[in-house]
């Protein structure tokens, strides 16, 4: 398995609840390496590009409003199989399916305010890292 990079982001609810440190700690303990990080408020245009695949969904407006509602902590993490393993550590999108011990299973009870975003494929990881960090990685 090749070394990969993925884009992870603590959403506004996670920043507000002060779980950034715990989330960073989980990925560090697992053995992944942080390659970029920034606290930022996402401009609406960037949010719409980031979530473009959901543009036709009924919850798109709500999704963009939420993700731009306060600071997020955007990160790039590197390691073997990190895209898939980070998704496992995040837990499922639906709260009734996210197991205790996962980030969402420990902190989230709703599908919309679910603490963390993580790329779901190599193509999305490359696209999202480009959108948020460009070449700006260590
Ligand atoms: O990759 P995920 O974040 O696990 O899930 P996704 O790509 O299917 O959806 C992206 C985000 O959109 C998700 O984290 C929360 C939001 N979302 C997904 N399904 C629903 C939703 N928001 C609302 N309000 N209702 C939904 O059914």
UniProtKB/TrEMBL annotation:
NCBIfam families, per the entry: PRK00668.1
GO CC, alphabetical: cytoplasm
CDD domains: NDPk_I
Organism: Lysinibacillus irui
Compartment annotation: Cytoplasm
Gene3D superfamilies: Nucleoside diphosphate kinase-like domain
HAMAP family according to UniProt: NDP_kinase
Domain of life: Bacteria
PANTHER family membership: NUCLEOSIDE DIPHOSPHATE KINASE (PTHR11349)
Pfam families membership: NDK
Catalytic activity: a 2'-deoxyribonucleoside 5'-diphosphate + ATP = a 2'-deoxyribonucleoside 5'-triphosphate + ADP; dZDP + ATP = dZTP + ADP; a ribonucleoside 5'-diphosphate + ATP = a ribonucleoside 5'-triphosphate + ADP
Record: active site: 117 (pros-phosphohistidine intermediate)
SMART domains named in the record: NDK
Gene designation per UniProt: ndk
Record PTM Phosphothreonine, positions in chain: 93
InterPro entries reported for this sequence: NDK-like_dom, NDK-like_dom_sf, Nucleoside_diP_kinase, Nucleoside_diP_kinase_AS
GO biological process: CTP biosynthetic process; GTP biosynthetic process; UTP biosynthetic process
Phosphoserine modification, residue list: 124
Role, per record: Major role in the synthesis of nucleoside triphosphates other than ATP. The ATP gamma phosphate is transferred to the NDP beta phosphate via a ping-pong mechanism, using a phosphorylated active-site intermediate.
Protein name: Nucleoside diphosphate kinase
Enzyme Commission designation: 2.7.4.6
């Amino acid at each position: 398995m090749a070394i990969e990079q993925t884009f992870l982001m603590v959403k506004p609810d996670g920043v507000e609840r002060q779980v950034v440190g715990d989330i960073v700690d989980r990925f560090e303990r697992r053995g992944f390496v942080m390659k970029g990080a920034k606290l930022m408020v996402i401009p609406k245009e960037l949010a719409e590009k980031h979530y473009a695949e959901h543009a036709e969904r009924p919850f798109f407006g709500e999704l963009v409003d939420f993700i731009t509602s306060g600071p997020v902590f955007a990160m790039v993490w590197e390691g073997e199989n990190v895209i898939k393993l980070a998704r496992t550590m995040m837990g499922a999108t639906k709260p009734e399916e996210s197991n205790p011990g996962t980030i969402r299973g420990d902190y989230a009870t709703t599908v919309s305010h679910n603490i963390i975003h993580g790329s779901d494929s190599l193509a999305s990881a490359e696209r999202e890292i480009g959108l948020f960090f460009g070449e700006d990685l260590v």
